[in-house]
Amino acid sequence: MRVVIQRVSRASVEVENQVIGEIGKGLMILVGIENSDGQEDIDWLCKKICNLRIFDDEAGVMNKSLIEIGGGILAISQFTLHARTKKGNRPSYINAAKPDHSIPLYESFLLALEKESGKKPQRGQFGAEMQVALVNDGPVTITIDSKNKE
């Protein structure tokens, strides 16, 4: 499982010109799921995400977690995070999990984020054309792959 985490002052997602999810200060997370992913990947990532110390403390040092600041979460499924680009100019998405595998894992990811953070995450709509808007605060952008834990 691969995620791109962005610290935001605000973020939203629209489908067909309707806002379906939005947050203020917090994390906007793009989530890529591959066939070999499972609950162990979800649990490890959610704990890591919610406890990353990437929010400023009173001294302006990145020393506080999402949990400590009570921030929001917007999590959006994005299969393109598993694009292979070695050959040619058209990315291959062969490593991205098909919906029958990825939808249940995305739902489980959202539940694990809620359990870990104590807040219900906002979400995108799986498989829809979405317009994502965000103000990256910092900017702070971090990528994490659950296959590279060490």
TrEMBL record:
Q: EC number(s) of the enzyme? A: 3.1.1.96, 3.1.1.-
Question: Among its keywords, does the record have Coiled coil?
Answer: no
Q: Which GO terms describe its biological process?
A: D-amino acid catabolic process
Q: What are its GO cellular component terms?
A: cytoplasm
Superkingdom of this entry's organism? Bacteria
Short motif Gly-cisPro motif, important for rejection of L-amino acids, span: 138-139
Known Pfam families for this protein? Tyr_Deacylase
Domain comment from the record reads as follows:
A Gly-cisPro motif from one monomer fits into the active site of the other monomer to allow specific chiral rejection of L-amino acids.
What is the documented function of this protein? An aminoacyl-tRNA editing enzyme that deacylates mischarged D-aminoacyl-tRNAs. Also deacylates mischarged glycyl-tRNA(Ala), protecting cells against glycine mischarging by AlaRS. Acts via tRNA-based rather than protein-based catalysis; rejects L-amino acids rather than detecting D-amino acids in the active site. By recycling D-aminoacyl-tRNA to D-amino acids and free tRNA molecules, this enzyme counteracts the toxicity associated with the formation of D-aminoacyl-tRNA entities in vivo and helps enforce protein L-homochirality.
Question: What protein name applies here?
Answer: D-aminoacyl-tRNA deacylase
Source organism of the structure: Ancylomarina salipaludis
